[in-house]
Amino acid sequence: MKSEIKMIELPEILDIPEKLIPVITKINEYNYFLIEGGRGGGKSQSIARIILWLSEKKKVRVCCGRETQATISDSVYKIFNDLISDYNLNFTVKSNKIIHNTSGSSIIFKGFREQGRVNIKGLEGVDILWIDEAQAITKSTLDVIIPTIRKKNSLVMFTMNRLVRKDPVYSEFVSRDDCLHIKINYYENKHCPQKLIDEANRCKARNILDYEYIWEGNPQDKTNDYLFSAIKLDKAKNLKFKEENYRKIRCMSVDLAGNGGDLCVASLIEAKSISGWALEKQEHWSEPDTDVTKGRIINLYSLWKPELLILDADGLGYSIYVSIKNVINNAIKFNGAGSSNRPNALNRRADGYLTLKEFIDNEWLKISSDFTISQLEYIKKSYKPNGQIFIQSKKDMKSEQGESPDFADSLMMGIYAINYYSYLIDEREETIMLESNFDPYT
Question: What is the model's pTM?
């Protein structure tokens, strides 16, 4: 597949932006090509031209895929069809396939996810896999299709305008030494029509955030699907609270593993000012033994000495909560499916995440852990018909991202406890004073 490419002058079909020429000249040096950027950069057009040129040189099997594809019009089929017509290339264009009449190369089009499952049929023996709109590819799909492309000298090409920073394709390939990464935007594309340039300038003047995503190809700060603002999460890393007298309170929260591969995560959140808090520590473990988990919780409780302790009591966590309650009688249980204090939240888990969002948006919470912030970035929300907010399930998040948001959930539970149960500390202290006959006036 990776034949030597030595040329003094590129053929007309390879009249692509100069920034993308390395995709051709270095095609023997990489297995993966990640081409990203905003609208008008010529990403899809250029990759289509390169594939057509390669298909003329040698017999190759090409698959052009997307996460979902209901019809051929959802694919890059039209780009190929137009280029073949414009340059009078020796291809036969069929309703669902394109074939070169001399080399025998074939180009097919595929949606990877069908009826909720990843379908790899037709990918075996592929020489080139081109995934357009790669920002829509989920982690679970990526984990299935990439190992399937294992033919010697095969190539995988991605074109995308990254939607979020923790994008599965970007995160996996951007730093790999076998991947050529190029970002290109409209002002680096010599073929970008003036109409698009004018549109970009209008967008820039109207809404700079839209411009940054649509035309500069930068991840969106916030989308309708994602709960947290990336800008606010960045601020949360380096928050500083003013010097003042405040009450020192600590809260310990424990999210328990609910499925295979999940982690148990304990978080310690401490007050840093009258209204400011910081995620100080997080400990995790994966042992499935409930006795080990109970022992870890009790040990951390004795080390951290929190005023509040909240435990995940859903599913298998309930029996652990009951056992812990027998030892630490002021432990609080958290039922994610339980009722919400907010009318706009479907359940307690949604309530907890909306509370956490308030703390982050108002800059009341410092989160130094990059890993926890990365999990918060992919927390998704949706709306039920009655308008209530629903947070995507841990199972679905794990399917998309390849990991369960255990660290994020543990932090969320702690903030929930701080917001709704801090009054218990006052009640406890008042009870202690009464039982000890403490007289504050003597």
Answer: 0.64
Count of CB atoms situated within 10 Å of the CB of 159: 25
Nearest to 90 by CA among 128, 130, 53, 50: 53
User: Which residues constitute the domain of residue 252?
Assistant: 230-429
Residue 434 lies in a domain: no
Q: Tokens 């990991």 map to which residue? A: 403
Same-domain check for residues 278 and 388: yes
Question: What is the sign of the dihedral through the CA atoms of 382, 387, 389 and 394?
Answer: negative
What is the chain's pLDDT, residue by residue, as a tens digit (442 residues)? 544 444 447 899 999 999 999 999 999 999 999 999 999 999 999 999 999 999 999 999 999 999 888 788 878 999 999 999 999 999 999 988 999 999 999 999 998 877 556 778 778 889 999 999 999 888 878 888 999 998 999 999 999 999 877 788 998 999 999 999 999 999 999 999 999 999 999 999 999 988 999 999 998 765 668 899 888 998 999 999 988 888 889 999 999 987 666 889 999 999 999 889 999 999 999 876 889 999 999 999 999 999 999 999 998 789 999 999 999 988 999 999 999 999 999 999 999 999 999 999 999 999 999 889 989 988 999 999 888 999 999 888 887 777 889 999 999 999 999 999 988 887 766 665 555 554 443 3
Q: Are residues 244 and 203 in the same domain?
A: no
CA distances from 168 to 4, 111, 195, 367 (A): 32, 17, 33, 23
**CATH number assigned to the domain comprising residue 51:** 3.40.50.300
Residues 210, 235: one domain?
no
Residues 97 and 175 in one domain: yes
Q: Where are the beta strands (DSSP E) in 324-403?
A: 332-334, 365-367, 381-383, 389-391
Q: How many residues does the chain have?
A: 442
CB-based contact 333:279 (threshold 8 Å): no
Taking the CA atoms of 92, 94, 98 and 103 in sequence, report the sign of the dihedral they define: negative
Q: Supply the CATH number for residue 273's domain.
A: 3.30.420.240
